[in-house]
Backbone:
């Protein structure tokens, strides 16, 4: 069944890539600009806001893009890698749903939901973007947390650290899953096992740190100050916390929040000598806004959290309106089925309720963290597969209930 789900997801993405032409000519993002810079001998860099940036994004996707383009001179390798990651994501989600609900039906349905998810299909097959890898590592971190709860061996802990470490080089917010997963594991483990589990989790953290450290050291030496992953974190925070903030990158389909800067402030920003000076420029203004308007900061945080789980006025502004409505119909159905999945978890009791708490902790924790910054529609898609594990259980519960009613009706006849 898992092989069938994976093959189905890959075929859907490959078909979409061929149909749209994205397999050969995907929509390009900053990762491609950096990859081309690497191949041209200029290193991990790109021009942004009038200067050269060396730590604009986390490196995994750009490295993979550069390797694929260097070996073949085309975008086909990175797009096939994204499609494979999307297929692996469907399998991982199926495994998680099966662990929570038991049986095969919830697993199959959850995997199918990921396989046909319009957002994942679009980003995996038509855009050279890191979302495929981001979502996969989020799901793998959840799955490995569940495996650690089954058997907290050193090997499983080290694999957990490996997932967090490599995943962080794709999307920095996955770092939060380490402590959240570790606290959940410690809270549910027997008291006599906690010392050994804590040791294994510390070693897992060391593995993650060893993987992340070379990139952090490179950044810190380059900028002469500590930079964990990227230099644009201050800008991301400013986008969601400034006098003209909407909570989104956009104000409307034609204007971004950045465009709302007065000309004199924009000129001042462009005059900054390097990317860290520009980061400080954004940081000073966002901190001043939060200090002067703490109530507005909290209001925006709540608004962005709402946007994260529903939608903002600007969501889908750059796509045909029909795409947005079709996706929202799909997503609304997934939310209803996820609510049914939660109800089923409550009825099943432990261990399903313990796993349900883990899913909830990850979903709420990661969405709260993202909502501190700014929220675009694709930010939810990184963790939406975790939500679909619940949707698969809810759909299975609904189907099983309908089948039981049909069986009782047939018996009465």
Residues:
């Amino acid at each position: 069944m898992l092989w069938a789900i994976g093959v189905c997801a890959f075929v859907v993405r490959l078909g979409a890539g061929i149909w749209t032409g994205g397999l050969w000519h995907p929509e390009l993002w900053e990762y491609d600009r950096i990859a081309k810079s690497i191949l041209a001998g200029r290193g991990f860099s790109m021009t942004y806001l009038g200067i050269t940036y060396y730590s604009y994004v986390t490196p995994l996707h750009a490295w993979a893009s550069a390797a694929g383009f260097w070996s073949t001179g085309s975008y086909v390798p990175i797009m096939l890698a994204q499609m494979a990651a999307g297929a692996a994501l469907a399998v991982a989600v199926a495994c998680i749903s099966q662990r929570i609900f038991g049986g095969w039906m919830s697993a199959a349905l959850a995997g199918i939901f990921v396989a046909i998810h319009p957002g994942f299909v679009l980003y995996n097959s038509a855009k050279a973007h890191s979302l495929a890898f981001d979502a996969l590592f989020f799901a793998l971190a959840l799955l490995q947390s569940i495996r650690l709860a089954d058997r907290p061996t050193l090997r499983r802990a080290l694999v957990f650290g490996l997932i967090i470490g490599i995943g962080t080089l794709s999307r920095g917010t996955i770092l939060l899953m380490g402590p959240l997963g570790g606290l959940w594991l410690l809270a549910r483990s027997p008291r006599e096992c906690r010392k050994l589990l804590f040791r294994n989790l510390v070693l897992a953290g060391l593995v993650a740190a060893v993987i992340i450290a070379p990139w952090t050291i490179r950044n810190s030496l380059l900028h002469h100050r500590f930079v964990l992953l990227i230099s644009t974190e201050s800008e991301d925070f400013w986008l969601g916390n400034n006098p003209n903030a909407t909570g989104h990158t956009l104000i409307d389909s034609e204007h971004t929040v950045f465009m709302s800067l007065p000309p004199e402030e924009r000129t001042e920003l462009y005059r900054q000598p390097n990317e860290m000076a520009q980061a400080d420029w954004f940081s000073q203004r966002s901190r001043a806004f939060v200090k002067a308007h703490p109530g507005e900061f909290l209001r925006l945080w709540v608004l962005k959290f709402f946007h994260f789980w529903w939608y903002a006025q600007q969501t889908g502004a750059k796509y045909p309106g029909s795409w947005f409505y079709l996706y929202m119909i799909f997503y609304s159905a997934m939310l209803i089925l996820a609510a049914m999945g939660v109800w089923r978890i409550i009825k099943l009791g432990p261990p399903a309720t313990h796993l349900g708490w883990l899913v909830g902790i990850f979903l709420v924790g990661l969405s709260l963290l993202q909502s501190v910054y700014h929220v675009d529609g694709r930010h939810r898609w990184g963790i939406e597969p975790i939500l679909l594990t619940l949707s698969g259980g809810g759909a299975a519960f609904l189907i099983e209930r309908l089948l039981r009613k049909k069986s009782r009706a047939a018996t009465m006849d």
